[in-house]
Amino acid sequence: MAKVSVYNMEGKQVEEIELNDNIFGVEINEHLMHMSVVGQLANKRQGTQSAKTRSEVRGGGAKPWRQKGTGRARQGSIRAPHWTGGGVVFAPKPRDYSIKLNKKEKRAALKSALTAKVNDNKLIVVDELKLDEVKTKKMSEVLANLKVQKALVVLNDNDKNVVLSTRNIRGVKTALTNTINVYDILKYDTFVVTKDAVATIQEVYA
């Protein structure tokens, strides 16, 4: 099992804990991580875009001018795509962009992402994150002590003071153990997680 240091809010090492290799030491599957990210972004798309084809545009039933004799190019309808006000070629229509991954694939992708953070030394465990009040400056100092900038901060419980203090820090996002996903883990440079949250993750995904 891999061992990682546990730091306090001052950035000092206080102990070491072992990580479960079934979660933080698996063989990295880049394909599944890619599919998970693509699926998550695709599932956010509304798919409500729409434009009219030439058959749906009002008017244009009559031939603009006769076929021969005018000296102009032959035309069949003023609603053809090359006319102003005409239809759109291959017009976009409402569609479902969602991509489905099964549970095993989702879990494997998440474990791969967590393992990648451990391998890159980008996983920082904090003994606890507690603030007496909502104070962005105090949270910025904590992150500075941990020497992180762009980070995903994972909490075990929804601590309002920590969440609100972090919300206005650029490049930092908070998440709970039941809301972590591959996209956020890979997007943010450092994975900052509390000791309690590590225990919960290992319990849920073991």
Task: Tell me what you see in this structure.
The chain has 206 residues and is of the alpha/beta class. It has two domains: 3-45 and 100-205, Ribosomal Protein L4, Chain: A (3-Layer(aba) Sandwich); 47-96, no CATH class. It has seven helices and six strands; from the N terminus they run ββαααβαβαβαβα. The chain is elongated. The mean pLDDT is 94. Residues 43-76 are annotated as: Disordered. Residues 43-52 have a biased composition (Polar residues). This is Large ribosomal subunit protein uL4. Keywords: Ribonucleoprotein, Ribosomal protein, RNA-binding, rRNA-binding.
Please report which band the strand proportion falls in: under 5%, 5-15%, 15-25%, 25-35%, 35-45% or over 45%. 5-15%
Which overall shape is indicated by the principal axes computed on the Cα atoms? elongated
Main sheet: strands, sense, barrel: 6 strands, mixed
| Total count of domains | 2
Cα-atom radius of gyration:
27 Å
Question: Strand pairing plus helix content: what structural class?
Answer: alpha/beta
GO molecular function: rRNA binding; structural constituent of ribosome
Organism: Vallitalea guaymasensis
Keywords: Ribonucleoprotein, Ribosomal protein, RNA-binding, rRNA-binding
InterPro entries: Ribosomal_uL4, Ribosomal_uL4-like, Ribosomal_uL4_dom_sf
